[in-house]
Amino acid sequence: MLQAPVLVLNASYEPINITPVRRAVVLVFKGVATTEEENGNFIHSTRMAIRVPSVIRLCEFRHIPRQTRALSRKNILLRDRYTCQFCGRVLPASELTLDHIIPRSRGGRTDWDNLVACCHACNNRKGDRLPEEAGLKLLRPPRPYTLHTSRQLMRMMGKSDERWRKYLFY
Ligand SMILES: [Zn+2]
Predict the structure, then answer these.
(1) 36, 61, 82, 152: which sits with the fewest CB atoms below 10 Å from its CB?
(2) Residues whose Cβ atom is located within 5 A of ion ligand 1
């Protein structure tokens, strides 16, 4: 339950992030954020019961740079919606790998625009080649991770939590 996702709003109510309950509770405790919505559960410590937040809001407005997300396997898979960018199959994370579009051996960088989610079959087929050399074609060029991308993800995740909706669907 401490890993459950909590929607983080800027002071302006703009959704900016998703964080686990554990971290959200710390932010509220420190006075950095306030709870906007609760999920109805409690965390019990020896002294008290803490209401578990579902949506929190930062007390001070935070300027969000255009690209805020760290480059990581998880974020690439999220951006690509767990879809192999060559054959279009949607797969669990364990069955996906990351492909360097331009292979590292040819100077391809480890970067948002050179990495895509890829299934093992396509990855084996591609090997150390460019997509066109392996007869593969990208579904679309890889997108940088912008706030727009992350809002789409928040919307996807927010479908399961109606407390998030009023902040996401506007
Ligand atoms: Zn594939």
Answers:
(1) 61
(2) 84, 86-87, 119, 122
